[in-house]
Amino acid sequence: NVSASIADPITILTQKAIDRKINHGVLIDERDVPVNENYISLLKTQSGITVLAKSKWFNAVHVRGSEINIKALTGLSFVTSIDFADKSLNLKQVQQKKESKLETAFTSFTYGNALNQIQMIKGDQLHLANYTGNGMTIAVLDAGFTNVHLMASFKRLRDAGHILDDYDFVNRDDDVYTNTLSSHGTWVLSTMAGYVENDYVGTAPDASYYLFITEDDASENPVEESYWVEAVERADSLGVDIINTSLGYTTFDNPNYSYTASDMNGNTAFITRGANMAFEKGMLLVNSAGNDGNNSWEIVGAPADAA
């Protein structure tokens, strides 16, 4: 139903998403159409296969299983290719194929403890010019938003109804406040949305926010890249303007999955390719560089390597 979905995009996107795409001259195409759920259901019935994430932009799913069981999936008519997280298995695959030929904005704030940081980036001047985030939608992708639903510093945000929704892509539930191993997302959100009268003001106190967990703080595994891409796709369909991510990926617990510095070329990592596509879709992506300048990695991590 790809053609029908593109012809009637409100069936797959919110009106805000459609309006944003029109505003930026972004075409609605087959990448906006969700993955065929019948295919996913069939994959779930395959021996030894667990489906962990999906991506409409790449028309792909992230699965886990043994090498033998994963390779068996090529026997399904709708599976065109397999990309192993263990790159050495991909090399084997290529060789085998060759051989077989195959609200109101407040403009004057008392910043208190936040004064120094907001003056450094001239955010106070933006606020005076009425740029406080009003009318903008930001999706924050992180590891956990502990107590955001209770903390007084987010009461203004909650009272305004500006936390639009939340979701934990790792645990597949909507508890991003208590069922988490990390408060990192809370800290990141506070720099934008935190507000304590006469003591602290974030950079975008009047913006609206989606809070998504994509990072599994208990381990480092490539599936976290897939969670991130899936979350960004959802953000796109919801009409989000800005993606904020203070995460990055370089090496994994299993060294066979790890990237090398030369892979940080803007087109290799799955999460980076997803970031490039998100930009094509009309969203602004703000990502941490990685804080790795003084260690052996030295350069940015994915997806910060995206152009």
The main sheet comes to: 5 strands, parallel
- Our estimate of the beta-strand percent is 5-15%
Radius of gyration: 21 Å
Total strand count, please? 9
Termini separation comes to: 33 Å
Q: Largest sheet, order of strands side by side?
A: 4-7-3-8-9
Which residues form runs of ≥5 with pLDDT under 50?
94-106
* Molecular shape: globular
Helix residue percentage: 25-40%
Determine the mean pLDDT: 93
- Annotation field: number of helices: 11
Structural class: alpha/beta
What pattern of helices and strands is seen along the backbone? HHHEEHHHHEHEHEEEHEHE
Give an overview in words.
By secondary structure, this protein is α/β, with parallel strands linked by helices. The protein is built from eleven helices and nine strands. The protein has helices at 2-7, 15-23, 37-44, 67-71, 87-99, 115-120, 123-128, 155-159, 184-193, 223-237, 270-280, and strands at 50-55, 60-64, 137-142, 163-168, 195-196, 200-201, 208-213, 242-245, 284-287. Strands 4-7-3-8-9 form a five-stranded parallel sheet, with helices on both faces. A two-stranded antiparallel sheet has the order 1-2. A two-stranded antiparallel sheet has the order 5-6. Strand 1 (50-55) and strand 2 (60-64) form a beta hairpin. The protein is globular. Mean pLDDT is 93; it is low at 94-106.
